[in-house]
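As a warm-up, study this chain.
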Amino acid sequence: MSRENQSQSQHEKSAQRAPTPSAYEVGYKKPPLHTRFQTGQSGNPKGRLKRSRNLDIMFEEELNAPVKIKEDGRARTVSKKRVFVTQTVHRAIQGDARAAAFVIKMIDKIDSRRADRTEATLSNENLETLLELREIFSSAESQKTPPERGNP
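Now compare it with the structure written out below.
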C-alpha cells in the first residue's frame, strides 16, 4: 500500500468517526469539534513536571559528591562529607573548642543510637538469659583456682 493510499485511508477513517458539524450537537460529554484532541497528538505534550528538589535532597547530593584530596602525598577521591568530618575532628584535636564540642556531641549521639539498637534487638527473655549466664560465668571465674605451677 502506498503512502498516498495510507494517508487517504486514515483520513477516511477519521472522517467517518467525526460527525459533520451540522449533525453534531454540542452538550454534556460532547465538546465542540474544534476543541477535541487532534488524532495523534498527546493531551499532555510537555509531560509531567519534575518534582521540585527540597533542601534535604540538595544537601545530601552535595555532601555525597566526590572531591579529590591529597593525603600523605597520594591523590584520593572521597566524599565531601568525609572531608568535612575529617577536618572537624582534626580541628577538635588541635584545640578548637567549638569543633571539640561538636565532635563530643556526635560521639554521644552515635553511642546512644548503638545502645538503642542493641537494646531493641534483645527481647526481655533473651536479656534475662544473658544476665543469668553472666552470673554463672562470673561465679565460676571467682571460684576457679589458678593452676599450680610446679616442675614438670
